[in-house]
Amino acid sequence: MKKTFRLACASCLLAIVSMPAQAERADREKPVQLEADRMSIDDLNKVQVLEGNVILIQGTLQILANRLVVTQDADGFQKGTATGGANGLARFKQKRDGKDDYVEGEAERIDYDARAEKSEFFNRAWVKSGLDEVRGAYISYDALNEKYLVTTGSGASKSATGAAQARVRAIIQPRSKNENPATPKGDPLTLKPAQSGK
Fold first, then answer.
1. Which residue segments constitute the domains of the chain, with CATH numbers given?
2. pLDDT digits (tens, 9 = 90+) for 96-133
3. Going by C-beta distance under 8 Å and a sequence separation of 6 or more, which residues neighbour residue 177?
4. What job does the chain carry out (predicted)?
5. Using an 8 Å Cβ cutoff, are 5 and 36 in contact?
6. Residue 29 burial (10 A CB sphere; 0-12, 13-18, 19+)
7. pLDDT per residue over 32-80, tens digit each?
8. In terms of Cα–Cα distance, which of 86, 30, 21, 15 is closest to 60?
9. C-alpha 59: how far from chain center
10. Closest Cα partner for 151 from 120, 106, 111?
11. CA dihedral 54, 169, 183, 59 (to 10 degrees)
12. Exposed, middle or buried by CB within 10 Å (0-12, 13-18, 19+), for 42?
């Protein structure tokens, strides 16, 4: 059981650790601390489910949710889904690699696909990287191309309270004039216009 528990911890971490921006690399070498009211592991189908006040900590990485489900495909790639938590929001926070600031975010549901290196935040979504932040009904972050897509969602996309989110909002800090473009200090946010269908 101890070996199985460690494998579950590792799988949970792999599915979530590559959240938006350049995550603190040293976190991958730190032990994983997990707390939950319940945990079930299906080794045959490669599914781990943690439920009830879920807390995952590894180094600077923190995930808080009511439920965390991790699946693994035949090639070993993981997908993770964190849902619920305080006020119905799953939350994460992690120090950026080589920086003195953090990436943090929250949404009613946070999905991560390790194969595509893509994170998605659904309903009441908010992501902050350093002093830059974006807010909308849906946020997608493509780590391979370092791009964000933020939309207001469709009319069917509403928060847990039933209220529709009105508009996408972003705060993007100006770059320092003394900053050398060849060595940027932060990762800029790239916002795309909302696309219909999301």
1. 2-171 (2.60.450.10)
2. 777 788 888 999 999 988 788 788 999 999 998 888 88
3. none
4. Involved in the assembly of lipopolysaccharide (LPS). Required for the translocation of LPS from the inner membrane to the outer membrane.
5. no
6. exposed
7. 788 899 999 899 999 989 999 999 888 888 889 999 998 888 888 878 8
8. 30
9. 16
10. 120
11. -10
12. exposed
159's tokens? 């928060």
CA distance 111 to 139: 11
Adjacent-strand bridge partners of 39 = 50
Which pair of structure tokens corresponds to residue 128? 């902050």
Measure the CA–CA gap between 157 and 39, rounded to whole angstroms.
Answer: 30
